[in-house]
Predict the structure.
Amino acid sequence: MFDHYGPSETEKQFIVEAAPKSSITTPQGVRKVLVFYRCQYPHTSIATANFAYEQIAKSSGAFEVTFSDDPADISPANLAQFDALLLNNTTDFDKTIGESGQKAILEFVRGGKGLIGVHAAADSCKGWIEGARMINGVFQCHPWKPQGTWAFKLTSPEHPINQAIGGTGFWLRDEIYAYREGTHDKTQSRELISLDLDRPENHDAPELHQEQLHMTNAISLRPVAWIHRFGDGRVFYSNFGHNNTTYWSPLVLRHYLAGIQYAVGDLNADDTATSELEIVNTAPAPERSRR
């Protein structure tokens, strides 16, 4: 669908070099992931992301990957052959896959399979209440523009998915969302990464949409990546993935791999909601040197 936006040969080489060279944990069998990338808004990074997922699968050996932007593939019969469905910047499921596709995804995940939502996947369910609950977040706006480099902290840095990226806070250039009020239930998910609001750059950088920053409150602005159970299935969502450059960040590719291995059922990762933990450790973003 968006092949003309594909990565250059140089960018492909960046991705090949950045892709994890081993799995986070040993796969328990041949894992199959369907990457669905139908989008009403043409994110130019979609083709770059598809190449990155292909390389992650190839270099890590953790799963096999199939790509589709055909809504007909979101059916019970087709999904039955996969361990997880990865939504690569998908949007507006009301307009793309319709009620039958929505029902198929709900049955797939509730029945014990995995769902991986990347970036605009949070804009897939704004008209679909059950889907919004499944992902646990609906896009409202993006105060943190893709031109900015933002500070991120880890919640539960000891968590296996966070350990896969070193267990420390970091900085990354990407577009970061705020979610519609009431659509991210903090009692549902194990939050893994959030914006580090102690860093002033996340409040006053010139790359901020200040008018969007005031559209919602600070609590709803914070979460960036999380996991949870949905029925018998497992959901991993990551807001990272707007910029092409995100897909040759070794940190982000390992983050994706760990989330995928959780979603397919291979990575044993505690998905107790953060709100239920007696002690919540965090790892803040390091100070950023100013020159």
Summary: The chain has eleven helices and twelve strands. The chain has a mean pLDDT of 93. The longest strand covers residues 223-230. Residues 46-60 form the longest helix (15 residues).
